[in-house]
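Fold these two proteins, one after the other.
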Amino acid sequence: MFTGVQRPVLKFSEICTFSVLYKAYLAARRGKRSRAATANYEVHLLANIVNLVYILQTKIYRPGLFRVFYVYEPKKRLVQAPAFVDKVVQHALVDNLIYERITNSFILDNYASQKGKGLHFGLDRLRGFFTEYWNKYRTAEGWVLKADVRHFFASIDHDKLKEKLKKLDLEPIVFDLLCTYIDSTDGLPLGYQTSQLFALLFLDEFDHFVKERLHIRWYGRYMDDFFLIHPDKDYLQFCLKEIRVFMASLGLELNEKTQIFPIRNGIDFLGFHTYLTEEGKVIRKLRHSSIKRMRSKLRRWEQDYPAGLVTREKILQSWQAWDAHAAHGNTWSLRQQVRDRVQNILKEEI
């Protein structure tokens, strides 16, 4: 709704300072100091930042080429990684200029790539939804619409996205730079920090449609993966038809795995399968594929560690990351089994 209060225009000059770009460099290197690109940038850090200030202030900055590669876990996908200097500029843009402007219209239950949210926030919201549902109806009988968008990042229409960005009151040079990132490839490149925000923005109107037009109380979305919970299967079938029409207006379509199923089947969401029992208890089980991948790693480590093909530090780092994630489910026995096998591999207590 128009309130009559005009927002200040977001100006490019706000990121063209040494202090802002130094903070952006610190954010870009976080967790990546051992990588060659980061180390090379650090060798002449002060000169690199001074030069970056200059090329931004004189408006001659242009993003470089991507480094393209595949990652294979949890599934195969193409990553287009920008040069380190472009990551610095991206952090300056997102963290200091456009983040608040883009996210201030987001609903609470849009979980991805935002401060104070994320995977475990989304899981906790789902737990709360199931508890609310049981408290209201005193049953686990009901229905779930579970869906995701087919080839989401690759399918985002550039012109439609730019129309959404035009509504944010950006200085023309900021808008033009964001368009340069958008037009660097078909769809949105997975490696850009801006791509995460743009993807969230692209479906923000959809979130409001589900909440305010379809009146779904128990709804959550993580990027393009979403669910609706409702006691009436017929109403969810109506919602699905409306959602397909809405997605088509954005140039998107739902994955063929989209389905409506009973609540008692549980919801596969954010790496866990979450169930509501007839007694009102919420149980969260780790996704089978995550267990399978860890068991495969354990078998590989049992061969590779004695042969010197993998280090103790690498094993511990991988196991600790998996264990921290698994700890958010009802997984105590499973985690103890995995811990015991890691100890047997390393021949030490951990």
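Now the second one:
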Amino acid sequence: MSTAPTALLAGLIDDAAVFPPGNAPLDIAVARHRGHRRSAYAALIGPLLVPASDVESLTGEARSGTSGPLQVSLIARPGVDPSVVVSAIQRLSSESAVTAVGAELGWFPGWRNLPVDRLPLTLEIPRGADRDRALEDIRAGMDEGGHLVQAKFRTGATPSWAWPDEAELAAFIHDSARLGVPFKLTGGLHHAVRAEHDGEPQHGLLNVLLAVHSATHDGALVAVEALLAQRDSQLLANAVLNLDDADATRLRSLFTAYGCCEVTDPIGELETLGLLDLDPNEENPS
């Protein structure tokens, strides 16, 4: 059975179970994340995303496990004081039950001065006048050396963030490719294909993968946008199956990961479309 290249999906989906709309209690999220790490699809799963403000509760939950250190990325939404992230990083530096593998917060001009001890940073890009400034600043930080940094863009709607349509998301992907700024996405990629779900528009994971592939091959902005708008699931699946390992590696060097509050949703759809061949005898965390 032909499936998607391993490099395309490896570590693609960060576990955002505690964030909306999942809103899982931290103890349940930790237990389920450990289950995901033992499952047939474990290779697809990245770290557990945890609010930096919950670090004390996190350490308590992590110590109750027996499966080794819990890998997490510490999250602060835009507008949260960056010192919350710094304090959480410092708290975990001596904690054997939890390993911080990254930190995510809103972009601000002083991010270079954060004492994060070379922990990889993911900076969420704003809209408006600072959007281009933020992307170019991240590129400059990469060029300076000594900064492990990437961008983040929100693909789903929140009370303070309207859903970004195909044109807006395409422009972000296209500009990131042009500048050579790696990025992750957050919110909204719960399904494999662009559609309306519960009356709300949602971007599709396969659409994004192919749009990024186009952008990394100097695809025109209009082509990137058209791929984001495509709703033919079989057409998209076949296009992904046609990607080779080199395509996958190049694509993922730009699109590094995305957060999803229920990681099994897109994984199940990828399997249904023939892009994954999972062993049903492997442990599942349901």
